Amino acid sequence: VTSKSQNERCFMYVNQRPINHKEFVTLIASKFVNYMVEKEKLTAGTRRYPFVFLDFTIPPNEYDGKKNSFN
Question: Regarding beta strands 52-56 and 10-14, do their DSSP bridges make them parallel or antiparallel, or are they unpaired?
C-alpha cells in the first residue's frame, strides 16, 4: 500500500472535471489509517494519505461544481 504524508495524491473528478472535496478526502484518509492500524502497518495517530483516483459519472444536475456539493 502506498501512502504519503500529504493528501496531494487524492484526485477526484465528477463528470471528468476535477473537484476538491475536503470532507471526502478526510473520510478516505480516516478509513485508510484505521485499516492500516488494524493491519499493524501504522501506529494510531499517524497522518498518512493513500493514493486515490476517483472518477464519478453522474447526471449533470446532481452535482453543483460552484458550491462543491451534491444535490
Answer: parallel
pLDDT at 40 over 60: yes
Eight-state DSSP code of residue 3: E
Which grid coordinates belong to 23? Answer: 470532507
Average pLDDT over residues 7-27: 83
CB 20 within 8 A of CB 7: no
pTM: 0.63
Q: 41 Cβ partners below 8 Å, 6+ apart? A: 1
CA distance 68 to 4: 25
